[in-house]
């Protein structure tokens, strides 16, 4: 299973053999004796010309993804800091708008940079307000959650780059089953919390040591999702997909990172609670 955002774009999926596709050599014309029709001067120019880079051909590069991801995170951090200082109560507004924009962007076939930037801004409002709330109860907890998020991201990237964890069909199926189970579990917990069954600050199934255990499982799932995200980006770069899809890749990474941060924030809050 890939991140739904990547999975919605066929270019990031596993390559499929295309029938009837002509090879570049098939477009070259040949004379009656089988010799290629081209003069010596043309051939000299072709061999002397420098090879075009992926950027010059308008194809996706890792630099594109890095720059777009950094830009989205910068927007998120700036709006988050502003919300923290000026209006932390707007976090619920940011949560709703972020959810709507997240769904819209996830199901769009073509990336929309303005909508993706607005999503990052809305998530900044949400995270800025909710982080200020947690920080007011547990001093230093936001710094801990940010550091832990960066650490999990770095470990996931290392495991992927080193080849110690490979995104195989079995890996994806296992992740799919685990994600569906986590989603069902979360919906049940939310329902119990709304109806006041079992108590607990985060619902009966997400409080105390049970909450910590479930949170750690969620962190592992988020880390696995990051690895799948990296694999999807790698396939996109190798396939030479259009550079504009760097926005899709950056959006997918930010969605996973936001989820990871919230899970870690909740774990630290439970551990530091009474």
Automatic annotation (TrEMBL):
Q: Where is this region: Disordered?
A: 1-28
**Which segments show compositional bias classed as Polar residues?**
1-11
Source taxon at top rank? Bacteria
Residues annotated as transmembrane: 65-84, 114-134, 140-162, 174-197, 209-228, 249-271
Q: Which Pfam families match?
A: BaxI_1 (PF12811)
Q: In its keyword annotation, does this UniProt entry include Transmembrane?
A: yes
Q: Which UniProt keywords apply?
A: Membrane, Transmembrane, Transmembrane helix
PANTHER family (alphabetical):
CONSERVED TRANSMEMBRANE PROTEIN-RELATED
Name of the protein this chain belongs to: Membrane protein
Q: Which organism is it from?
A: Cellulomonas xylanilytica
């Amino acid at each position: 299973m890939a991140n739904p955002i990547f999975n919605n774009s066929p270019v990031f999926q596993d390559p499929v053999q295309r029938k009837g596709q002509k090879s570049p050599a098939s477009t070259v014309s040949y004379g009656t004796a089988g010799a290629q029709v081209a003069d010596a001067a043309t051939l000299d120019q072709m061999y002397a010309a420098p090879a075009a880079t992926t950027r010059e051909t308008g194809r996706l590069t890792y630099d594109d993804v890095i720059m777009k991801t950094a830009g989205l995170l910068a927007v998120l951090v700036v709006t988050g800091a502003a919300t923290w200082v000026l209006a932390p109560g707007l976090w619920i507004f940011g949560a709703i708008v972020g959810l709507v924009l997240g769904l819209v962007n996830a199901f769009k076939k073509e990336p929309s940079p303005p909508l993706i930037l607005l999503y990052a801004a809305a998530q900044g409002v949400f995270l800025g307000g909710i982080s200020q709330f947690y920080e007011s109860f547990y001093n230093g907890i936001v710094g801990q959650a940010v550091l832990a998020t960066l650490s999990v991201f770095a470990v996931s990237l290392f495991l992927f780059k080193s080849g110690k964890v490979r995104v195989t069909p079995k890996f994806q199926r296992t992740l799919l089953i685990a994600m569906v189970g986590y989603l069902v579990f979360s919906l049940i917990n939310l329902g119990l919390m709304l109806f006041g069954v079992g108590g607990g600050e985060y619902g009966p199934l997400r409080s105390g040591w049970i909450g910590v255990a479930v949170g750690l499982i969620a962190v592992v799932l988020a880390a696995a999702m990051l690895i799948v995200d990296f694999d999807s980006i790698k396939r996109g770069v190798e396939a030479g997909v259009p550079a504009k899809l760097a926005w899709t890749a950056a959006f997918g990474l930010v969605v996973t990172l936001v989820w990871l941060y919230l899970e870690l924030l909740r774990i630290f809050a439970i551990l530091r609670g009474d």
